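From the thread on structure requests for the teaching lab: each student submitted one protein with a one-line request. Submission from student K.M.:

"Model Protein kinase domain-containing protein from Trifolium subterraneum, tokens only."
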Amino acid sequence: MPAAASKAPMVTFCPLAHFHKSENVRKALVTFMHKLEPPDQNFTWGWNLTSDPCTHNWHGVTCSANNQYIKSIVLEELNLNGVLDTTSLCISTSLQFLSVNNNNLHGFISEDIKNCKFLTHLLLSGNKFSGSLPVSIPQLRNMKRLHVSDNHFTGDLPNMVNVTSLISFLAQNNYFTGQIPDFDFSNFEAFNVSNNDLHGPIPDVRGRFGADSFYGNPNLCGKPISNSSCPKPPPPPPIVKKDKIINQFLDDLPIYSGYIVIGLILLIFLIFKLLRKCKTKDKEKGLDHVEKKDMSQDTSVVVGGGEKLSEILNSNGSKNWFNGLGMRSEYSMTSMESGVTTSGLVLLSSRKLRGLQFEDLLSAPAELIRRGKHGSLYKVMLDNGVLLAVKRIKDWGISKHDFERRMNLIAQVKHPLVMSPVAYYCSQQEKLLAYEYLPNGSLFMLLYGSQSGHSLDWRSRLDVATKIAEALAYMHEELGESGIAHGNLKSSNILFDKNMIPQISEYGLMVSHIKGIKNRNMSAASFRADIYAFGVILLELLTGKVVKNDGFDLVKWVNSVISEEWTAEVFDRYLISQGASEERMVNLLQVALKCINPSPNDKLSMNQVARITNALKDEDDKSISFDTLRV
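Reply posted by the TA:
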């Protein structure tokens, strides 16, 4: 080994403290229990500052399989007499299930309930809660069951029409007013708003619920409580024509007609000039917003000149499914006008897209951002100014039914760092998927673009690794039974929003296959492939070197350097020059090596990876705080 080469210390991993063991979270949960006011304040069912919620089995608390985080809190029929302190409760952001049914709790529900962003069940029935429900409740996009019956709630019902996962809403025996929102009743298993003070027409419940779900609201009308429709509003008063004025106008019309014609000509001329100027500006903008080339595999192309998405799709090899019948392509506007398209656009989660039709999407101006081996990506601007990234998937051997099942499941399992599809189109020949367009490029571009990674220092890279690990671990746990892994995780699929927060894109679009994995359980293999791919991303963050299928093998190179005990040579020279801690880089490198280990028995789970990267980030943050204090 050359004299200049140095051996880096190899640090072994220690068991990590779970997030619920942090003092702040434990204090918050104990405060939450104190404000519930148990009958005996000296007996709080084990909720205290000297024990752990999971390992010491706090009453009513259920944790994940490995005691990594709290999943549910059930405190039913305990004669609790206090208030629901959601400000303290939702510091434990992982909570999915909360039930305090059948107690004597009172007071308002705070807007801070929105911080329990993964909540799927909120069961508050049989108490004495009052006031309006928080306006932030519709922000709980994972909500499945919302039960608030038998309380003293007032105000409007929450507008949950965009919460597509909701299957049960019980709000009977309260004092709610206003109209019933137009819920998507096709997914509902239970619905009851009886005995309130609601008014107006009952939405179409699609025959799923009877009159007993609506009784006790005398001002409701329509089916199913009445066969007669709601009374129509009175017609507007008739317009009284004044014959004298009309006759006078007709007499004077020849005098003013010349002025009218001149005015129309001037107006048309001004509109023409304005449209021409706007078109020129749009062309220039189309050429300015060029996505940088993905050097690993993808080819970037920018289509300017205001071409429609349908024209670009046809010009890039869209199949003519009806050639044998002498019919036009699926994406031709003529075929759209003739009603040839086989199915419509399915909208999943965006209020901004409400009412959007497949024809509207195809007629919108678009750019081809890049073309890769799994399909093409387009930037599309809708009439209302909303920007979408539309993915056209090719060569994916999956049925239309399975595609729709996967997309709907992914849309329901939401994580703030995972981009959910907002719409999709699926026919036998073509599959399109739409996401919100993110303006700040990908991790690949930040690492290998014109700045050569200099915009990402060590703390930024560790922060990206931590956030992506946390999001991927959550998706693996939520979609594990469904067998839906990411399938194509890479640095070009880690995008950044307007605040430079990383987001995982294209989750679940591909079924991955990794060489060396021979297992009949392809679902488990897909999740292990995600872990392998995350390990490769960690290597990119640590080394600053590009991954190429047909050239430099990053994994093989890293292993060869480490085997020669030249570990320090692995790391990006920019990180070294910025004074990044070599010890912590070695720790993260060990995580990467565990992820890319071909042996499934020795490989970490994503939950383990997330805990370790979180611990490394906490350690890094503490060291910076300590250094700051010393200065």
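TA comment: The CA atoms of residues 214 and 358 lie 36 Å apart. The longest strand covers residues 366-372.
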